[in-house]
Amino acid sequence: MIKVEGLTKRYARNIAVDNISFEVEKGQIVGFLGPNGAGKTTTMRVLTCFMPPTSGSASVAGFDVQQSPMEVKRRIGYLPETPPLYPDMEVAEYLDFVGRIKGIPTADLPKRINDVAEKCAIGDVKKKLLGKLSKGYRQRVGLAQAILHNPDVLILDEPTSGLDPHQIIETRDLIKGLAGDHTIILSTHILPEVEQICGKVIIIAKGKLVATDSVENLTSRLRGSETVAIEVIPQDGSAPPANVQSRLEQVAGVSRVIHKESKDGRLHFTVESLEGRHIRPGLARAVIESGWNLNELHGMALSLEEIFLELTASHKPEAAEALKEAAAEAPAEPSAEEESK
Amino acid sequence: MNTFTICNKEMQSYFRSPIAYTVIALWALVGGFFFYFGLSFFVQRSMESAMQGQAFPMDINEWIVRPLLSNVNVVALFLIPMITMRLFAEEKRSGTIELLMTSPINDIEIVLGKWLAAVGLYSIMLGVSVLHMAILFRYGQPDWRPLAVGYLGLLLQGACLLSIGTFISTCTSNQIVAGAIGFAVSLLLFVLNWVSEFGSSVTDRVIGYLSVQAHFESFSKGVLDSKDIVFYVTMIILGLFLTSRSLESVRWRA
């Protein structure tokens, strides 16, 4: 459905997208993952015919974005990062206007508007001014605008950014609901979002393609080894940290034990497992059998930063650097932790 | 069809915001002031001439319509940048330009639609001043033909400056900047003919020829000169052409 080959976009001084190639099958939901400034928006803007590529080609449904932009535009629904809304228009008027410039026959328009209003749950604000809508509603109207002409391909640039957790869940459900009829590309810098919605992931950093893989493969790659945080209180307070550490290292499947800190007789360790080994039961048994108190034992989620670093480390060191910086800004995702437990 | 959709949207936007009302109100106020003084002056002079025993009444076209057209022409010059400054600057700032440019419509349809909306608002503005003329027809017998030609001139000159203002609006995402540059360029185009008043070299005459005001003079006299119509139409096409090229460059630079 979507084919991108050797796509490069150069601005005056810097390269925003550097020789990216990927393909998206019909009906797939693809997550476009990368830190801010990685080139996600630029790639999307090329696909939507907003800007031409410097070199390389992109095609949607067999139509090249440069040769036949009209055909591509007819088949694409696009939600930019900020929904393109006119604040002085009412929701229904806005959808009517969008419908007209998208080339929907006037006779079908009212029905289409009602359909998308229902799908996106904006029926109750139809008569409201766009400028007065809350962020969540604005995003939903933006989505309604994108699917109004029933396009084959949906391109959504950070559809959940700036929404509250409740709205994020609603928007994700809405996108999942659209999956059957549309091929969807959505960009995000939130990994769990990709896991929940997408079938395939394209990871880019600093304009370069870092990985293209299915979500299953990606997660199994990442979840191969386990990191566990453990807090031990030696009962008599006499066992030195080194003893505890060496005991933990003897547990089957443990690859590394790092002593984090000791405070009031409580010892904190981070334990990493070998690939594919469950070490938590063994750790618990080792602590109890040594006569120590096990105060805490929990699996640690790989942070977004670590995941990115892991994926990018083998590719480009400078890309990994950029990811580290960007990921540090990214908010911690509670759902990531839940899932890894 | 798409042109009409865009035009309709822009027109509604003018009337939803204070822009349309401000422009029309200012026009009515300042234009009405000029009309009032033109009329008072005329009444006084014609009373004097009647007392001096001159048989024929003074020519309304000569004494009221012509100076009035020249005066309101200057008022229009001030208001035109207010009409055009938001056309593209606003869309660029708010990001809605992405919606327009990723929709299956031609750039030229976007440009034409927006320009037509601007011309539409300008025409409505001109329409308000027709009220003044109605008063003249109620109490006097002005000749309607030079009046119509004068209004055609106002419309053509306005449409020409509006197309240039539209072009300037595509160059920035800041409305104030678009408005300021639009005003400066309009003013320059207006007074360029001063050059040819002092010098008579070929360069001076060519520069003078580019003045929109110079071409308005024949209209205000009630003379329909094809040379002036051609000038305005050419300038309109130039303005719209520059707008669509500039819009295309937004794609490359964005």
Quaternary state, please?
heterodimer
Mean of pLDDT of chain A: 81
Radius of gyration of chain A: 25 Å
Count of alpha and pi helical runs of chain B: 12
Describe the sheet with the most strands of chain A: 6 strands, mixed
> What string gives the helices and strands of chain A in order?
EEEHEEHEHHHEHEHEEHEHEEHEHHH
Which range best describes the helical content of chain A: under 10%, 10-25%, 25-40%, 40-55%, 55-70% or over 70%?
A: 25-40%
Helicity level of chain B, as a percent range? over 70%
Strand and helix order of chain B: HHHHHHHHHHHH
Distance between the termini of chain B: 27 Å
Q: What is the topology, as strand order, of the major beta sheet of chain A?
A: 6-7-8-3-9-10
Alpha carbon gyration radius of chain B? 20 Å
Q: Could you tell me which chain pair has the largest interface and how many residues each side has? A: A-B, 27 and 23 residues
How widely separated are the two ends of chain A?
Answer: 37 Å
| Architecture (CATH level 2) name of the largest domain in chain A | 3-Layer(aba) Sandwich
Counting structural domains of chain A, the number is 2
Q: What is the mean pLDDT of chain B?
A: 90
pLDDT < 50 stretches of chain B: none
